[in-house]
Amino acid sequence: MAYNLGVDLGTTFVAAAVAQPNQVEMFTLGDRSVVAPAVVYRRDDGELVAGESASRRALSNPGRITREFKRRLGDPTPVTLGDRSYLVTELLATLLRDVLDKVTETEGAKPDRVVLTHPANWGGFRRGLFEEVPGMVGLTDVSLITEPEGAAAHYAATRQLTEGEIVAVYDLGGGTFDATVLRSRPDGVEILGIPEGIERLGGVDFDEAILAHVNYSADGALDNLDRRDPQTLVALARLRQDCVLAKEALSLDTETIIPVFLPGRHFDVRLTRAEFEDMIRAPIESSISALTRTLRSADVAPGNLSGVLLVGGSSRIPLVAKMVTEALGKPTVVDTHPKYAVALGAAAVARAQAGQQTLTSTGSGSESGSGSRSGSRAGSGRGGSSRDGGAGDGGAGRSGVAVLPPGSGGSNGSGAAAGSGAGGPGGGPGRSRRGLVFAGLAALVVLVILGTLLVNNVLRSGPGAAADQELAQSSAAVAPPDPSPPAVSVPIPSVGTPIPVGATPGFAEVSPNGRLLYVAGGNSKVVTVLDTSANRVIATVPIAAGPPQFLTFSPDGRRVYVSVFDAPASISAVVVLDTTTNQVIGQVKVPARPFRSAVSPDRRMLYVPSNDSSSVSVIDTASLKVTRQIPVPSGPHWVELATNGSRAFVADHDANAIGVLDVASASVVGQIPVGAGPHALAVHPTRPLLANANFDANSVTMIDTTTNRVAATIPVGKNPEAVDWSPDGRFAYAVNDGDNTVSVINASTDQVTATIPTGRTPTSIAVLPNGRQAYVTNLDSANLTVLNLGG
Question: Is 2 helix (H, G, I), strand (E, B) or coil?
Fold first, then answer.
């Protein structure tokens, strides 16, 4: 009998659902569980195996196994198993092939159509790589939809909603988070706004938090282990499994014991639910912020929701429901089988795309296998209904899903509902509306539907414009900072939707509280202001004095000091903006070509490097007068102050050295030789460490500021022009002008963990104080690349 297949290749688990003409049900992939672990193992003969077969070998040969590799899609660094390296696409293909082999063996034939799901926040680059995976296993008739669209399809098929009722879907899985908003209509359900996704937020991050707790409780015992010892690797693999079990136990109990077996040492670590909740509270807050942004994009107030559906395995953590309810003031409903919703919805979409008519709704069974399909394990259950879909490159880099009558047009099931996007791959900032229509009654379906509506909201018109303008003229930049700790940064940031910000964006600086981002427009002679909560431009400030090149906030956020100069250096000044009014309140003439300045912690002094005069100007910020000129080596490009303000570091571009200034005496007290063309500096948030980008040497130098000696030199991309730290200090980010990338550097190992593509000619990076996002200015693309650093 003909059938269609939906597959959710998750970060930690793989799920599959089969859609027959009259039912949709889960397919059992494991021996003891419906889902299978997203694990790949390389055998001695070189063959790759996946799922439970691979997981069973994890303890005995941890060096031949890999997990959570989906997060690394887009990273050019391959994954090493044993003595061979593999691309992430090869590993994903291994997972997909394992699913296809098992399903085909049980069903007796290959599926007519397959729908694969992916995170909502993937842009064109990662989607393009993911599209290669089906072809690697011989599949041709395949569609891609986002994970929230799959969850929405399942939700719409299994619940009756009253007309106009609006619900939110909160999908927290093993490795990613997605959010979407649904509204009931007389003829079905539609997706409102732009689904939000945080790729690096899920159960595996919570597992790592528990592992870190074990290490802390044992006074750093894990840090002192010899990772080259096979016994150690086996012990750590077992400990990670026990951390997962502890996490799951705390969803039912108030405390648990984690057994720790290390070479030559055995002990237990007690973990309470309260301790665990403290570890994960900040990441859950970030997911709620993403859900709030989704509601905002849909123009839906939390009070207009009838409830929030929780799907994904990690949504069963009690704190999730508690925090979502408290934040939105609405009840939550946990899906009966949160791990299955995406796969069930994908299968329903696959059947609808194949033009088959829905006869009845059926669904998944329990973990033991009832209600799933796998040979003798096939059973009954209630679940998904059909959905017709179209995968389009619409909106902010997301696909559209709509229902069309069977045979009503469009090749490969895409129909007329294929979305169209703005802003190139990944789309531009905007607001989209896509429909997902479903048949709620048995034997009756077929409805029409929803194209894509995109509204460019760089400067939004209508009622919202007044509010935006009010925000631009308010004291948003000087509001108190968020007191919560920054997000834990990840080794491979994901890329969000690019943000158009006008011509020639050359430098960006975020306000101390993270609320606003100011972008120097260079030759466009404007400074653009971005609201970071909505990633939307809210003001454009003309700079009459000339092209704004660099920006520096005062510590209290009340002022922005703008370095202004043109190519012939006929204009050289520092312009002062009042951030509460965005008005120019002063201007100071300085020597030729002022580059990136720094403000003292007490806000009294501004240190401005002038490239052509080989000097640093000291400006009294109260009188706006130059009080002193400090001679420095040739070509000073950047000044960075130590956290206590006692010293200043100067990147002397032409001298290939970092100058050290004593602030009290206003004199050079040392020089640190580095690579060719030092351009930008960044002080580590907690350690005595200074990062320096060497433009001409294609490297980043790490300097120990207690000894003023080079601690490491790290090769990065071509012509690194800027560098900055994650607020938690785990990673540095080098912006490579010459090859349009950002290099991510692990501060502990001094190794590049990822190379992230950006727009054309990236020139600066600004990291939010909460550690969740960073913005890269792309000079020739006229936009910002958004990096999701840690959810």
Answer: coil
